[in-house]
Amino acid sequence: MTPASTANARYAARDLAHVWHPCTQMKDHEGQVPMIPIRSGQGVWLEDFDGRRYLDAVSSWWVNLFGHANPRINAAVRAQLERLEHVILAGFTHEAVIDLSEELVAVAPGGLTRCFYADNGSAAVEVAVKMSFHYWRNRGRTDKRRFVTLANSYHGETLGALAVGNVELYKSVYRPLLMDVITVPSPDCFLCEPGESWADHSRRLFASLEQALARHAREVAAVIVEPLVQCAGGMRMYDPVYLEMLRAACDRHEVHLIADEIAVGFGRTGTMFACEQAGIRPDMLCLSKGLTGGYLPLSVVMTTEPIYAAFYDEYTRLNAFLHSHSYTGNALACAAARATLGIFREDRVIERNRALAAHLAARVRELADHPHIADVRQCGMIAAVELARDKASRTPYPWQERRGLAVYRHGLERGALLRPIGDVIYFMPPYVITPGEIDFMVEVAREGIDRATSA
Ligand SMILES: *Cc1c(COP(=O)(O)O)cnc(C)c1O
Fold first, then answer.
1. pLDDT tens digits for 349-379?
2. What structural domains does the chain harbor?
3. Is ligand 1 within 6 A of the CB of residue 153?
4. 139: which DSSP letter?
5. Can you give the pTM of this predicted structure?
6. Whether residue 122 has its Cβ less than 6 Å from ligand 1
7. Among protein residues, the one whose CA lies closest to atom 8 of ligand 1
């Protein structure tokens, strides 16, 4: 079969004539990397136009929770579609957004009673950053305008979100356009001293954050973190004790705590929200990705009554939070989100995921003695392995060799969508994956890693 004769190839050629893809050097598609046109999805499987199937091991960029074409979410979106697709959310409201807000307040950490909607993760981070700054301004603290962020953090790629993140690959080019932030070392446990526990490491690293707050609190509006897992930063993980200490320090120094749970929320780390593992409540909780089960773009910033109250005033005092997006609180997206939350309740997903996460952990642990795997780590339904040229010294491969890309290509040949972050191979599957499919996914990765590291 010559490539040009297949349906895949025809779609790929049409695509490449006009579609400019995200996070992609388009020239890669000249030969290095095939463009895969997907015709349909079912559960954890995607099917292309030539009938080849791919296990979606990355949940289509971490958004899909209960599989593609999930019957319950399909039905909910269909029902909503027959009644109302969208309505302006200023001055008007609708049933799906009201129901969803009540349900989110019920499941989020206690005290997060106000829901401000946007339509993607970066926009939620922009909202949280503006809201925090504006809160302090409304309270007369105009000096509080800076943000503290962790090294290797990721909060999205619009300019404000990019500024409070720290992944060089995405940030460095745009630095001249970005506001200045205070960056402290990450509690990332890949960087543990030999013999040091995750908790000890995270506790030790907190000293830098404490120091930054002691020095700058007067001019700091908020600290923003990804609780427990820095996902885009290579699935780097840390101990909940860090969040506990952070919450206490933010209170002590009168600084907001923004928890960006856009990737880790909705069960990814083993609890509904990662903050639960530290027993803390952030001042602002950013949610998106899994919020709609991976169906439609929607995000929300949940916050507290005191923060809401700082904006609640006579119109003429001009203290309102005027931020808006055209598709804020879209009804179809809200219906998908309600169906998603319904599945969590009805199927006791958090409980059921415990067994799945244990199975994933056991399978991934078997990779630990691979001669080119320097680290194996797992947190709930996220597992990752880190390739290295030299295992003992953890010397990475030169990035130009793109070893991870070879694993990706092997996955495509074998029927798994594994999309590494550099040389970090990770697994973040939909929760409807079976133990047998987990075995397949990890086995394909192991083969790919063997191939990628054999020369
Ligand atoms: C994906 C992500 C974002 C950005 O969300 P988008 O919808 O892609 O803009 C922000 N923060 C974290 C932690 C993310 O993983």
1. 999 999 999 999 999 999 999 999 999 999 9
2. 36-69+349-452 (3.90.1150.10), 71-347 (3.40.640.10)
3. no
4. T
5. 0.98
6. yes
7. 121
